[in-house]
Predict the structure.
Amino acid sequence: MQAGSLENNEFMVVLPQRVEDFPSAPTVEEYCHAQLSQCAAQLYQAAVSRPPEKLQIDTGTGFFGELLAEVDTVPVQYLVACIGCDDRIYTLFLWCEQSIFSGRRREFDQLIASFSAVAEYGSHKNGKSSESTAPDVFSQAALA
């Protein structure tokens, strides 16, 4: 799932990864650390500015961290959140210009909280597995 605003230079991408696809089963914290490191390696002038910290969510397990980088000479700040839910880890990448990040942080936190609640609800809805409800989870989180 992707969402964004070119007008506001704010963007979000959500990527699911099945835990069984990993050679070894990482913890959500390890996975978050790996995502931050991989992103930093792919971005220009990038550095992890905040290592993984536990997310305060009601269900599942989650961690988040932050990156600083440049895109076309514009300083950008990224919030990367990883949420474990049943057999998947969802990674949310949220970013905007560094100069407005602190003002957008509350909205980013609300998106993460609404996504984690919807993902947990979707994985247990009517006793279905997260695989059968994953598309609904993305639709509901995008509208949240």
User: Anything to note?
Assistant: Residues 54 and 124 are 23 Å apart (CA to CA). The first strand starts at residue 2 and ends at 5.
